[in-house]
Amino acid sequence: MPEYSLKINGKKLKVDVSEDTPLLWVLRDHLNLTGTKYGCGIAQCGACTIHVDGMPTRSCISPVTLGIGKEITTIEGLSENGDHPVQKAWDAIDVPQCGFCQSGQMMTASALLKENPNPNDEEISMAMSAHICRCGTYHRINDAVKLAAKIQKQ
């Protein structure tokens, strides 16, 4: 198997996997970064969302080769101490019920706020609508994105 060098959460890491191995399984099974979740396997639910060069990316359908020469960020790399504005807001609003989809939700929310630091309700709904939350915490998710926008301004 070929060896690939990837930059994940600011660290250069090497993995020996086939070229079509999804980034999700590289992260979870080979690098023990289990915050990124497997949901549907067809890029519909959003549980597997990571950042590739700052863009929200569904890792379940993205081959390892997509990450070559790019900066990959997982939920573990969003902040060292869990103090990213999105993480603070998620805690303050008490967003999760089961929590399964939340790492993907937070990765999309953080990318949205980086691109648009003051999104309106429609912009938040549009960005976050690409995710499925089986527990139905959508209202709290939207409230948390608004709070995160306020926190990051401070």
Describe this structure in words.
The longest helix has 16 residues, at 138-153. This protein has a 5-stranded mixed beta sheet with strand order 2-1-5-3-4, sandwiched between helices. It has 2 domains: 3-77, Beta-grasp domain (Ubiquitin-like (UB roll)); 85-153, [2Fe-2S]-binding domain (DNA polymerase, domain 1, Orthogonal Bundle). Helices cover 36% and strands 15% of the residues. The protein is of the alpha+beta class.
Tag the structure with descriptive keywords.
single chain, 154 residues, alpha+beta, Ubiquitin-like (UB roll), DNA polymerase, domain 1, five-stranded mixed beta sheet, 5 helices, 36% helix, globular
Concise synopsis of the structure shown:
The protein is of the alpha+beta class and 154 residues long. Helices cover 36% and strands 15% of the residues.
Overall helicity = 25-40%
Which value, in Å, is the CA radius of gyration?
A: 15 Å
- Provide the CATH superfamily of the largest domain: Beta-grasp domain
How is the CATH topology of the largest domain named?
Ubiquitin-like (UB roll)
Overall geometric form: globular
Mean pLDDT: 97
Count of DSSP-assigned helices? 5
CATH architecture heading of the largest domain? Roll
**Structural class designation:** alpha+beta
Please mark out the parts with pLDDT under 50 across 5 or more consecutive residues, or reply none: none
Residue fraction in strands = 5-15%
Could you give the order of strands across the largest sheet?
A: 2-1-5-3-4
